[in-house]
Write a structure and sequence with these properties.
Largest sheet: 4 strands, mixed
Strand order of the largest sheet: 1-2-3-4
Bound molecules: zinc ion
Strand content: 25-35%
Structural class: alpha+beta
Distance between the termini: 46 Å
Order of helices and strands: EHHEEEHH
Low-confidence stretches: 1-8
Mean pLDDT: 77
Helix content: 25-40%
């Protein structure tokens, strides 16, 4: 298995890659074509938290599993966990002042 990473926040990416590799045995098969030729890359995932007009866009670096056979990309539960953490950080950062802004 080959693992790539983006350049920013190397410490964060390393922690993510460790987590991704930790469960790689369960996630290294393409759900679409069954190939085991999977490359994991850390990518910025932007997602909306909350409904408009109060929704905010959060960014989380998550491991994405790319199938080299069919090109299918997928996130697993680690990505969901990381996105949940991003939401928690976001909520933890909010102060009454920031909410008004
Ligand atoms: Zn595939």
């Amino acid at each position: 298995m080959k693992i790539t990473q983006i350049d920013n926040e190397p410490d964060t990416n390393k922690a993510l890659l460790d987590r991704a590799k930790h469960c790689a045995e369960r996630t290294d098969t393409c759900f679409s074509c069954g190939s085991k030729d999977i490359v994991i890359s850390i990518e910025e995932n932007r997602f909306q938290y909350g409904a408009d007009p109060d929704g905010v866009e959060l960014v989380a670096s998550v491991p994405v599993h790319w199938c080299q056979s069919c090109g299918e990309g997928s996130c697993n539960w680690i990505a969901e966990e990381i996105m949940n953490e991003a939401v928690c950080h976001h909520l933890g950062r909010l102060t009454p002042t920031q909410i008004k802004e």
